[in-house]
Amino acid sequence: MAPSFKIKIVDECQVSPPPNTTPISLPLTFLDIPWLLFSPNQSIFFYKFSNYTCNSTTIIPFLKHSLSLTLQHFSPFSGDISTPSRPVKPQIMYSHGDYVLLTIAESDGDAFSQLSCNCPKDVSKLLALVPNLESPVSNETTSVPSLAVQVTVFGDMGISIGLSLQHVVSDERTYNIFMKTIVCEKVSTHTVPMRKIFDNLHFSSSCDHNCN
């Protein structure tokens, strides 16, 4: 079922960690392998603007920069899951030049309250707010990205941040720290302007969905 609101993709960009990020290779253990069979974890976080001075022009550049800085501390998130033929073991790899695909979208401001409210929702509508990410076992190639991100701007009402993350890359605690670090990086690297911007953003709600 198609969503009852319109979404327009306005940009797709590649966000990489800073150049000095160290490449890493993490072979999967026996206990990691079953998680390759799961579809990516999909989450949406809604943030409401507290005033009308905060908009996509001010928030999107800082989100890109903060995501890049955060990926330096979570480099496997910007890498790939490699599933080569035997006897080589599957592994999570980050190399220089790897990136996270960030999708920027726009939608009507009227849809924000409907989607972020604490009430039952049609999952098909929420799926329009998260990026597509293939499962390692459903892809014909030998590697798939670890993470994809979509930021949807709802006029002057707020934004949603949708993420698709491979289950094998992270547990829920690490995932939670990753999201919190994005905000911490913003505040620490752009002390004055970022504090003003994030004072105008209030966490509204979040949704998690797994298609296993």
Automatic annotation (TrEMBL):
Gene3D superfamilies in the record: Chloramphenicol acetyltransferase-like domain
Write out the coiled-coil annotation as residue ranges.
none
Record keywords: Acyltransferase, Transferase
Q: Name one GO molecular function term.
A: acyltransferase activity, transferring groups other than amino-acyl groups
Keyword Transferase in annotation: yes
Q: Pfam families from the xrefs?
A: Transferase
Recorded hits in InterPro entries, A to Z, give: CAT-like_dom_sf (IPR023213), Plant_metabolite_acyltrans (IPR051504)
The name on file for this protein is Anthocyanin 5-aromatic acyltransferase-like protein
Q: What is the lineage of its organism?
A: Eukaryota, Viridiplantae, Streptophyta, Embryophyta, Tracheophyta
